[in-house]
């Protein structure tokens, strides 16, 4: 069995033609981060309303810090840093860089550097990066190319966080401001009834192959046994979740995991995040401001605990990450991604068959986020990227309306703590085959 | 596939001869709880030094409440409760009994009922239980017998907790009192070098069969694929763990899971729980008081985080719960259990082959505590026994020096949060087969 | 102006005949502490239900530690301590003894030493103390005598705390056990209307004179100006306080100090501590268990915030500590003290004139607990007795039904934080003279 | 004795000529608030680094809310509010307005309204206020005039808070940005030795007279007795405080009040706020950025606990607020105020006599902030201005380098909690006369 780490996962063979492609791809990714921030006021850039959602300014700087730390400092001779304290201010959690990092819960307390200075920092990084891509010696290129691809994927992840964090911050404001009031909406419709798709399972292989980029947590590819099962053709909708609420789901302790019930009581949860009852009608906060709840849309911004309680109430369960991957293997990336610019999950399309496995909402699985057999994190700070989080979190699959389409694949493993709700998180049911 | 719940797991066929056996077994189990408390002073019975470790008095009462709630109230006509408030005071966490429960973190604040009153409560329960076992109508017997077996296993679990909680409370006292100063000790020895045992794996079946009693979390029995692997012949010892400490293990962030590193820093962990450095020598608190650390004993009272960090440092990993179960299937229950009355893990015996899979120390596995496919909790309060905890915890296997030998089996799944250390918890390494 | 410290306040002249008297007084005081604990079960001795209320066992040991630390260790050659760790375990808060102290909030976590061991400790101290009183060289006697008198007054203070802490602990138990069920009760009566007593004031002297024992916080005696004022003849009663409650006093933010309102909301205060509404009737927890509220009794177990809010509601104010002292100067100690063995405040007697200034309930004054001009704490640990608390607390005057009559005097200053309620605390109104 | 409330303290006689003066004064005060914010970046306006220091944007809006709430809404017929939610967002703590208020600790989480919108709000208020001043009916004028004067003094208080809060926020940033780098500095000098000024005391009158504006907490004027005392001619300096530090002041528990010692240990205090040791030299954060510590300047940003510990160390004490007022009665307002635009305390001038009683640093007194005898808060929300804070705080006197000179007077009472340090707080010693 092949062990796999961040430093070995990409071999030169896959990438020898990549220099030009990466030189073109780099500015595209960089530009999109700034484009996402265009609707913001200066005042919005510094907001951190909860510890897990960072300020937009911090995201813009941190993704730049990533290139500086893992590419410019090690591979550019006599590289001049933009500011000597930025390695401390914009490191997120990498313990092994030696710089330490500004406390995560205080990211919103840094009015300086200003927004303009952060944009200047980005320009400094971009200029240096383009020179590095152009001029880097061939001997360094394989490592540089791999790290660059990680850096670009890393920035894409932060683009998704930019969107979800902005939504979180704006929803905290009692004025409920819109990020982009002009975002389109769909007419309110009732969802089609839920249909089930049966899959045979068997002794299958899961995990990434070497054909394309992947993160180290997607390998080693290995065999697992999947028993026959049925999978819902689409995610659970707002309308279906409303029936759970109306049936007293949030008051019925027997439906909940113990840790989930504790948080329901402590936080007074009565509905998904961003839902608000106003005069007997349900509304939800969106990136376009407050909108009436659409029963046909996938339910979103629910925790693992809520997904699990719903499944228990419905007499079903969540799929495992391997059931999901097996079902998704030959499915098209047909859902809505960030490029579609809805920034909100849309109702499932009509017709038969599995739908929306990709895009719209991340889907909680019933699988704990653990290392694949034989996994070993890379040595050094870059090895902290994924490996050190393999405890206490659950796997989500498929991407969302805030994910880049070219960022996602069937083997992609996202992970969050079971109480977290601020991502575009929904779920799909499974059950044992008859 | 057969779904399985607490109410259906025991069928009459397995138990038709059980009435006499249970009538004999019941007083044995009950007597042992009281025997464990015999060395205590009255003052010790009420102690709760940390929220997760309950007072001995509470354990004695709670196990009695279990019989009262699930057997005497439902199956004894006109049953007279001992005290109307005890259903509230001695319920642990069952939300669906309707009584509510006294807050867990305040169990140590109840001087009343007194110890004498709790023993009187036990006598009241015992008299009623023996009558029920003798007189219960045949139609009720299957359910009564099943619940009684659960109740007895439940009391055995609390006997183990009595021991570990008393150790925890006594260790908190700066006088470090001995629970039983006369407990035997073994000469200090050096451990034999670690050897490895290779296993072939394959598509195997895991989970309980109907041949003996099991908890609902051990079923449905189902197939999993296990790749070839190597398993250490014995758990890691104090001496080996000391080498990790001396190599700076607790200071090396690169070895730790992120959540584990946070707790190492926050709590100032520098060694396993109960280890103390005095004048350059390591001592450990035991149920016999402070004793010099024996390098040959299995390391004990370590969290999952410490077990995982050690494995990373050693270039190995923890086994999955299925690897462990597969390896343990035909092994004898050869380790030390509570009946051996050492109340402390002993060094592994000499010789070749897998050793100490059972007894001495619970072994952390690398598996999250999740439901087996098709698992469904029983309806009602009894269904809360295991199911609602299937999130955020890890599986441990094999039992410890504080477990009853007749309580354990290869399919038995214990579970704790990854930061917990006060049980007799150790670990064994695994690695990919060559 | 004379400065005054604990070490100089008692001059030999006042005490040259005191050796025999103190030798007789010492065992009386010591015996009373144990007498107060006689109704306790062993289980009750270790209780600490809130941080500010210590376990009875701790009180019994701590007062003994005081003699050991300030008398036996310094004045008995070759004194043998009872246990080397007790100086650490039973020091309360004296930073300058060098021993450190066991954390205050964990006093309830020490099952050992046992109750029997603590009584043995007391006997050890008593034997040594009686020898010291008998044999102490004349040159040491003045200091020994002063410290002994402080030690006895200190034990009297802890006797009051024993009573109030036992009440607090028992009230926390949902069984509401009685400390002494046989304590007498008075028939429910209506209070007589409140009458006012007018006082002329002027430039007066306040603080202790050298005629009797006093604490260092009662001196230097000094002049203050008191304007003419009126003082209520008796404390506010339960019946009067009930009218405040029924008028929405606990809901009317305009009546409350800001810090008080914050705690009302945070703690959900709706009535004095120990009041409980059952089926529309008010009951209160007493040392004899639950009893119906007597409207004629002084209201008790109210915080400064509640006393102040009531006064605002009534259009009055609390007296200053100097107004109180001026009014109390020539009043008899006519209220109920611990020697009267009611352990509960009684209704004011009939008739004209100031009543109940002493005994029954401590009376909150509107004065902050600050040093008198020229006050200086004694050097060393004994100087921590009173001085270091002269911030953030309010002065209470007059003693309560749990205070020893020979412990109290007009100049006596008690002090608590404004939110504290577990002492026998009530209040009396004042207003500007017409 | 005359009782006094906010609604009665200003009688028409004092103010019948004030309409033109107030019409002129209003824009001056308003303009200065905006002038103080001119050096800020947009990013700085929203900062709240600690709960007690509000964002500049919030200050700008809140002072406008004050006019809107207490003047425009009640006195302008058909007044149109700028935004219906601002009464909720920018109320500070007035419980009786009925609007509720946004949580104080979340003031920094409101990116919207933007800075531009808040300035527009100010313009809206200003236009309405100037119309009200011009057109208000004569019958309303006395009340309007009084409330307007309160409103202007209120804005002056928030101007001081703007300065101190900006300093607090900038000091939290690891880049230590300067608010105004061009602020002047004085050469480092050694302070002149401390001299003492003797005062006779006696039965004096304290509190405000009706000759000028005052807050309700400065009355009723009343008699107090002040014994002869000596007062230091100037505040304690950085150099003197450094000697306390070097003598182990922060490590010597015997010098500290109990609550102070607790915070010293918990917070790790080792010096005044804003002091930093760099390479063995002491620096301090100022509004001009980091500067070397000037030993001749008054020590600043110390808590009451530190002031009291220093006094104990020095064998002196803090003056009472009445001693201070008595000493200050005929002194000129000769120190440095905000109009002098140093924004930092300056060394005391040379020469004999009392110096710097006014300006430079607020001086902690040893007096608790309590109501004067006969004080009664005004009914309604405006009565919450001062009265509800008369508990748990200490009085400071004299104003600082961030106070407006025309805001201060000998009877002015400022008040803060004893642990607070972020104002320009220093202290002056007193002692008993020989």
TrEMBL record, chains A, B, C, D:
UniProt keyword terms in alphabetical order: Iron, Oxidoreductase
Domain annotation DinB-like: ranges: 29-160
Sulfatase-modifying factor enzyme-like domain ranges (all copies): 199-343, 352-430
One Gene Ontology biological process: ergothioneine biosynthetic process
Pathway listed: Amino-acid biosynthesis; ergothioneine biosynthesis
Domain of life: Bacteria
InterPro entries the UniProt entry points to: CTDL_fold (IPR016187), DinB-like (IPR024775), DinB/YfiT-like (IPR034660), EgtB (IPR017806), Sulfatase_Mod_Factor_Kinase (IPR051043), SUMF_dom (IPR005532), SUMF_sf (IPR042095)
Iron is among the record's keywords: yes
Protein name: Ergothioneine biosynthesis protein EgtB
Organism, scientific name: Allochromatium warmingii (Chromatium warmingii)
């Amino acid at each position: 069995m092949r062990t796999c780490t961040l430093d070995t996962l990409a071999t030169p063979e896959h990438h020898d033609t990549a220099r030009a492609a990466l030189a073109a791809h780099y500015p595209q990714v960089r530009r999109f981060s700034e484009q996402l921030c265009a609707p913001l006021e200066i005042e919005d850039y510094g907001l951190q309303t909860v510890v897990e959602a960072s300020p937009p300014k911090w995201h813009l700087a941190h993704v730049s810090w990533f290139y500086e730390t893992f590419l410019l400092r090690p591979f550019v001779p006599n590289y001049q840093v933009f500011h000597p304290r930025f390695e401390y201010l914009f490191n997120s959690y990498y313990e092994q860089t030696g710089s330490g990092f500004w406390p995560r819960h205080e990211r919103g307390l840094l009015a300086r550097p200003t927004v303009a200075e952060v944009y200047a920092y980005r320009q400094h990084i971009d200029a240096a990066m383009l020179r590095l891509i152009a001029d880097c010696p061939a001997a360094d290129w394989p490592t540089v190319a791999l790290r660059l691809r990680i850096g670009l994927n890393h920035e894409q992840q932060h683009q998704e966080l930019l969107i979800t964090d902005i939504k979180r911050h704006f929803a905290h404001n009692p004025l409920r401001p819109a990020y982009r009031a002009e975002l389109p909406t769909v007419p309110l419709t009732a969802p089609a009834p839920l249909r089930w798709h049966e899959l045979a399972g068997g002794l299958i292989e899961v995990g990434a192959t070497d054909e394309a980029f992947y993160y180290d947590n997607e390998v080693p590819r290995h065999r697992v046994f999947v028993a026959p099962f049925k999978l819902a053709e689409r995610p659970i909708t707002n309308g279906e979740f409303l029936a759970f609420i109306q049936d007293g789901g949030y008051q019925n302790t027997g439906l909940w995991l113990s840790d989930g019930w504790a948080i329901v009581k402590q936080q007074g949860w009565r509905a998904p995040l961003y839902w608000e009852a106003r005069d007997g009608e349900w509304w939800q906060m969106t990136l376009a401001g407050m909108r009436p709840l659409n029963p046909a849309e996938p339910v979103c911004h629910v925790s693992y605990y809520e997904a699990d309680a719903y499944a228990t109430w419905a007499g079903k369960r969540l799929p495992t990450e391997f059931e999901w991957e097996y079902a998704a293997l030959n499915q098209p990336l047909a859902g809505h991604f960030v490029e579609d610019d809805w920034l909100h999950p849309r109702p499932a399309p009509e017709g038969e068959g599995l739908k929306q496995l990709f895009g719209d909402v991340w889907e909680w699985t019933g699988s704990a986020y653990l290392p694949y057999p034989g996994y070993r994190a890379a040595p050094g700070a870059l090895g902290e990227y994924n490996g050190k989080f393999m405890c206490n979190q659950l796997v989500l699959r498929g991407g969302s309306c805030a994910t880049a389409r070219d960022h996602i694949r069937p083997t992609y493993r996202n992970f969050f703590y079971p109480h977290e709700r601020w991502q575009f998180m929904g779920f799909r049911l499974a059950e044992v085959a008859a």
